Prior knowledge:
The protein is of the alpha+beta class. The chain has helices spanning about 1-40, 40-45, 65-75; strands spanning about 50-55, 65, 80-90, 95-110, 115-125, 130-140. The chain contains 3 helices and 6 strands; from the N terminus they run ααββαββββ. The chain is globular, with a radius of gyration of 17 Å. The model is unreliable at about 5-20 (pLDDT under 50).
Amino acid sequence: MRKLTYCAALLLVATRAALAQDLSTIQAHNERFAAAFNSGDFAAVARLYAEDARILPPGAEMMQGREAIQGYWTAAADTVGNAKLTAIEVKPMGESHAREIGKFTLKTKGDSPQEIVGKYIVIWQKKGEDWQIADDIWNINN
C-alpha cells in the first residue's frame, strides 16, 4: 500500500511539472506569434499553425490551411497591431493535443488608437517535439 501511495504521489508531482512546462511552452509560442505579427512576418505567423489548421474569427467565415490563415492575418494587420497573448490555462488532451484558454490585447491603427481586449481558445497539436495550432477561435469583450 505504501508503494502504491508513493507511486501515485510521484505521478501527481510529475504531471504537475509537465503541465507547468506545457503552459510555459505554449506561452513561448504565443510570444513568437505576437512578435511575428507585430513585425509583419505573416509567413512566420502561419508556420505556427498546422498545415490543415482552422481559424474561426469573429464575424467571418471559418478558414482552413496555412495559406488562408496567412492571408487573414496579413489583412488584419492593416487595422490592428501591438498584439499581446497571455495563456491562462493549458489542459492536456491526451499525449499529442492540448487546449489553451487565454486572453489577448490589440491596438487599432489610425489617428485615435483604441485597445481591443478579448479571449480565445486554441487547440494545440504536438508534431514531433514542437506544438502547432490546430484550431483557433477568439472574440472580443465588447
